[in-house]
Design brief:
By secondary structure, the chain is of the alpha/beta class. It has one domain (5-186): Rossmann fold. The chain is built from six helices and seven strands. Strands 4-3-2-1-5-6-7 form a seven-stranded parallel beta sheet, with helices on both faces. Helix 1 runs parallel beside helix 2 (46-57).
């Protein structure tokens, strides 16, 4: 089933390269152009805000999910969203974003972006969802991560079948094409049997 909504994880800062801002705007525009709903963290700052603004300018539907404690910072909450869900914690935020979304994309970002990407990938590995996951690899930002994944496979910590659990492209349009064609990205792991169980 093709996705109708896409969750994007990305930085609350702009980053050091103009390509990151260009990529955020291009991704927001592309999601809206395809008639899809953008789901994201609900703030007005950094790449997150720029992406949401671009999708809204294209006439798209944009849904934010924001913890209550961010409301104390008036610069953070985006005022122009189609919907804003207020939640109690960061854990609830991630669960709500996952519930509202049919696919996931990680753009360049910091520790929060990495944590969201790996948690949603782990949930897929455990069979908690079967939704495609993509990396918008602007300026080869995720090249080192892909190399680390390869290292983990080579060292026996990740099965070869999981060496590349993400769709990956520097172009928002090409990445969206991959996600809209994708089936189930990861099958659940089989449980590891202890010797006494065999």
């Amino acid at each position: 089933m093709e996705p109708k909504s896409v969750c994007v994880f990305c930085g609350s800062r702009m980053g050091a390269r103009p390509e990151y801002l260009e990529g955020a705007r291009a991704l927001g525009t592309e999601i809206a152009r395809r008639g899809l709903t953008l789901v994201y963290g609900g703030t007005s700052v950094g790449l997150m805000g720029a992406m949401a603004d671009a999708a809204l300018a294209q006439g798209g539907k944009v849904v934010g999910v924001l913890p209550h404690f961010f409301l104390s910072d008036r610069e953070r909450a985006h005022k122009g969203l189609t919907e804003l869900h207020l939640v109690d914690s960061m854990h609830t935020r991630k669960a709500k974003m996952a519930e509202l979304s049919d696919a996931f994309i990680a753009m360049p970002g910091g520790v929060g972006t990495f944590e969201e990407l790996f948690e949603i990938t782990t949930w897929a590995q455990l069979g908690l969802h079967h939704k495609p996951i993509g990396l918008l690899n602007v300026a080869d930002f995720y090249g080192p991560l892909l190399a680390m994944m390869r290292r983990a496979v080579d060292e026996g910590f990740i099965p070869e079948t999981r060496a590349q659990p993400f769709a990956c492209d520097a172009s928002p349009a090409a990445l969206m094409d991959q996600l809209q064609r994708a089936g189930q990205p990861l099958a659940p792991d089989k449980p590891v049997l202890r010797p006494e169980q065999t």
